[in-house]
User: What shape does this take?
Amino acid sequence: MPADIPRLTRSDAARPEIGIVHLGLGAFFRAHGAIYIAEAMAASGGDWGIVGVSLQSPRTRDLLAPQQFAYTALELGPDGERPQVIESVQDVLVAREDPAAVLALMADPKIRIVTLTVTEKGYCHEPSTGALNRTHPDIIHDLAEDLPVSAPGFLVRALAQRRAAGTAPFTVLTCDNLPKNGHLVEGVVLDLARAIDPSLADWIATRGAFPACMVDRIVPATKAEDVERLAAATGRLDLAPVMHEPFRQWVVEDRFVGGARPDLGTVGVQLVEDVTPYEHMKLRMLNGTHSSLAYLGYLAGHETIADTMADPVFERFVRRLWQREFIPALTPPQGVDLPGYAEALHARYANPAIRHRTWQIAMDGSQKLPQRILGTLSETFHAGREASGLVLAVAAWMRYVGGIDEAGQPIDVKDPLAARLRALSDGAESPEARVDALLSVHEVFDPEIAELLGPRVTDAYRNLLDLGARAATAALS
Assistant: This one.
């Protein structure tokens, strides 16, 4: 890369006033929600500039600040690439450096929406129940201290400041892949608020809004070669670009405090009364198959989802999941054809321009399994059907978190429970004991689903050990 290539900077266009704080400013929101919001302001105006908040690391702030927080979103399509400079982000704060500044911003009346992408683990809840985990170290801290460290803590303390100042609450709009995500974040916020001040919880419950939403866009991790390729193509150095597929979808329950929101409907956001059918469809048919392909594909030696889909064994496997296991357990949203949705997903997964790593998708599986796979398994078993493909996916997760792949090489398992899961796996003397030990992790498996899964997953786990992931997948009836 030439040493004198100029750095990307913001255009001379007037900046909008800020109206949104986003907690957890990562690649996904910058490749999805921030683009929609930029387009809505361009189409209909409004002061909806975004201030991002990095809850821990300053890396995103440090990369974006020299660019005046402008960045490139690069669409990766089968027929080529299309760059777009996004300028809806106005600033980035780092919560660990100055939590008081973050709270002061969130308490400002001009902030009318707080959006979040903090991943499943960022809500400090029990994935198997959705309840606030009061033993979580960050929640213990936030109950004792006025300056919080967790996302729920920042929401509660900022809402407390707004109540004390006589300011209306902001709308809390979570954009994470969680079932009933609005209900979940409302629950953890009210639980924490109730523990701090019951009257605050009553005020939030009465005056606040926590709309659910469903988000969908594949956003692979940006690599150094992506930065170099983009610089060569555009003549500008952007050290914080995001990559994304052409497809996007955002379905939002239209419940905002005082009706205050960007004009999202003009740019393709679906504004609905109930997001649940869309959420179930996406969490299961997309996220459920993504996780299943990630664990089995990784164990079989495939680096990306596109590589996995190019293997006919896994291509047949994912079609089986859609046709036999997910679609029979779903009620489609009105006007949506589920087999057609599956075909669209198939084309997206097979897009060779999207290098979405199986290892990346496999991260934080203890937080993802209940929503993506276990709910379907529970409903399927109670309906008297079997789901051997999803059972094999659970077994593959168990093999994966054991920390050793099929070639005997160590796996870098990224999961909040990684050490505990590895210890349980290592401490078991037989495959049956290993499965039983992992099924005892109540944060992942409630007792009922653990009992239903026991013998089924044990058989699948043995097949993985005896045959390997690819052959075990091919052997499914």
Summary: The CA atoms of residues 123 and 185 lie 7 Å apart. The mean pLDDT is 96.
